């Protein structure tokens, strides 16, 4: 049996400040705690869990997921969700399932948060479950990966 393909979990700007940043919206859970939960939820599947404040680096990681033939991508692009056509173009090149993830329910927030470029490519969107929604996203992408097997 071959080793399972990796799952990329990519996080955008300011998510390194989770636990301190606007806890009334994002809670007190840190990104380190979320990474632990995601790796536990993934079981034997390898997880590349990353965070950056750089749009360029986030796009390069999507390219890396393509080059490494990753099984799927869970991406919380944060502010780049609403601003980055370059990120959308990179995600369009990824052949596998993509889950766009947001800790808060972006549709209950200010109108600027209502138009997602990433949603134009995402297989599914999960929003509003809080930090504990990350493992839910891992289970959901595993189901999408399984559905796409021939």
UniProtKB/TrEMBL annotation:
- Is Nuclease tagged as a keyword? no
Can you supply a Gene Ontology BP term from the record?
aromatic amino acid family biosynthetic process
Q: What is its EC number?
A: 4.2.1.10
Does the record carry Zinc-finger as a key word? no
Reaction(s) catalyzed by this protein? 3-dehydroquinate = 3-dehydroshikimate + H2O
The residues annotated as site (Transition state stabilizer) are 21
Pathway given for this chain reads: Metabolic intermediate biosynthesis; chorismate biosynthesis; chorismate from D-erythrose 4-phosphate and phosphoenolpyruvate: step 3/7
- Which keywords does this chain's UniProt record carry? Amino-acid biosynthesis, Aromatic amino acid biosynthesis, Lyase
Q: Which residues bind substrate?
A: 76, 89, 103-104
HAMAP family attached to this UniProt entry: AroQ
What is the protein named?
3-dehydroquinate dehydratase
Species of the source: Ensifer canadensis
Q: What gene does the UniProt entry assign to this protein?
A: aroQ
